[in-house]
Design goal:
- The chain is α+β, with helices and mostly antiparallel strands and 134 residues long.
- The protein has a single domain, classed as Multidrug efflux transporter AcrB TolC docking domain, DN and DC subdomains (2-Layer Sandwich).
- It is built from six helices and six strands; from the N terminus they run αβααββαββαβα.
- It has a four-stranded antiparallel β-sheet. Strands 4-5 form a two-stranded antiparallel ribbon.
- The longest helix has 27 residues, at 104-130.
- The protein starts with a helix and ends with a helix.
């Protein structure tokens, strides 16, 4: 009986790792639908941990799901609010849905290269500020 209780409690105490997805959007399509990654993120942030990115390249949203029971297809079937008047499945508005946990090494490499690039940029900016202007 004690062993059964211990086994039950140890099963419930484990935290599942979860999954991480990268949603990539075409900026021209977002503009045609009169929306943005920030607006789409509002539909997802109530369910999952999210972070929207935009810049010179395609717009993206990083989605962290706290459990492993969902795949790219299921996430793509999730209905989101595209703009004030339109609701559609995520797969119709997202250019690509990438399961980053399928290739954790690639994800780690991308993340470290981004951090390295940011560190180099900060160092370069400090060097420019430290050198006197001609």
């Amino acid at each position: 009986m004690v062993f059964l209780c211990f086994l039950t409690f140890s099963g419930f105490s484990k935290n599942p790792e979860g999954k991480t997805f990268l949603l990539i959007f075409d900026k021209a399509e977002l503009k045609a639908n009169r929306t943005s990654t920030d607006f789409i993120e509002l539909s997802l942030m109530h369910l999952f941990s999210t972070k929207a990115y935009r810049g010179n390249s395609d717009a993206a949203i990083l989605v962290k799901i706290p459990y492993n029971g969902i795949d790219k297809k299921q996430l793509g079937d999730l209905f989101i609010r595209v703009n004030d008047k339109k609701v559609s499945p995520l797969s119709e508005i997202a250019l690509q849905i990438i399961d980053l946990d399928e290739s954790k090494t690639t994800y780690s490499t991308l993340l470290s290269s981004y951090e390295d690039r940011m560190l180099k940029t900060k160092k370069a900016n400090k060097a420019l500020k430290a050198s006197p202007a001609p």
